[in-house]
């Protein structure tokens, strides 16, 4: 794996994550893998997202990841 984007803070659904994007070459097939990590209520939460391009990863995360606060 080759670092495409070094670790940097980014916001996902209102939470701050650290994001890193890797370029993966497996048998001549290239895809991208992004790791998002944050601390949430005493736990480490990580998201591992793969797609054909880094732009597609951003689109997937922006549309698919939503955190909702629990009502009391």
| Count of alpha and pi helical runs | 1
Looking at the overall shape, the CATH architecture is 2-Layer Sandwich
DSSP helix fraction: 10-25%
**pLDDT average, as an integer?**
91
How many DSSP-defined strands? 4
What is the H/E order? Answer: EEEEH
Distance between the termini: 44 Å
What would you call the structural class? alpha+beta
Strand content: over 45%
Describe the fold and architecture:
With 72 residues, the chain is α+β, with helices and mostly antiparallel strands. The chain is 15% helix and 61% strand. The chain has one domain (2-64): 2-Layer Sandwich (Double Stranded RNA Binding Domain), CATH 3.30.160. It contains 1 helix and 4 strands; from the N terminus they run ββββα. A hairpin with a 2-residue loop joins strand 1 and strand 2. The mean pLDDT is 91.
Map the helices and strands.
Elements: E1 2-12, E2 15-26, E3 29-40, E4 43-51, H1 54-64
Antiparallel strand pairs: 1-2, 2-3, 3-4
Please provide a brief summary of the model:
This protein is an alpha+beta fold and 72 residues long. 15% of the residues lie in helices and 61% in strands.
């Amino acid at each position: 794996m080759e670092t495409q984007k070094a670790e940097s803070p980014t916001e996902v659904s209102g939470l701050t994550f650290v994001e890193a994007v890797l370029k993966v070459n497996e048998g001549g097939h290239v895809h991208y893998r992004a790791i998002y990590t944050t601390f949430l209520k005493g736990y480490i939460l990580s998201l591992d997202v793969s797609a054909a391009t880094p732009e597609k990863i951003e689109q997937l995360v922006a549309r698919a990841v939503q955190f909702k606060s629990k009502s009391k």
